[in-house]
Design a protein that fits this description.
The protein is an all-alpha fold. It has a domain at 50-112. Helices cover 54% and strands 0% of the residues. The protein has helices spanning 7-10, 50-81, 88-112.
């Protein structure tokens, strides 16, 4: 197996003056097959169940939803005062609706876990 010159990947030496790679050659004899792990043991953290993970995701999403709802209220007040254009409300509504939808999904997912 002949190695490719490094110029095939990095261009001429003038373009890459700090990289001093000559060539890389992978020998198939280095690849050693290893047996799979035993299937009997617990391989995850026992304290973080799927229900706890869903609750953590729900709490984080609720915080983001509250923040985006606060920004929506600020945008509505600023549009009413004439400080920002009304188009700004479209993106705020989309972001708040998306965050609320994800929060409702995590709430339903948390309730479905036993």
């Amino acid at each position: 197996m002949t190695p490719l010159p490094w110029t095939a990947f990095y261009g001429p030496p003038a373009a890459v003056s700090t990289i001093r790679v000559v060539s890389v050659m992978i020998d198939p004899a280095w690849i050693v097959p290893r047996p799979l792990a035993e299937q009997g043991g617990i391989v995850h953290t026992p304290g973080m169940t799927l229900r706890n993970a869903a609750l953590l995701a729900l709490l984080g999403t609720i915080l983001i939803t509250v923040l985006l709802a606060f920004h929506l209220v600020l945008d509505v007040m600023n549009v009413a005062r004439g400080l920002v254009p009304a188009v700004r409300l479209v993106s705020s509504l989309i972001y708040t609706f998306g965050a609320l939808s994800v929060a409702l999904f995590f709430f339903a997912f948390h309730k479905a876990q036993r």
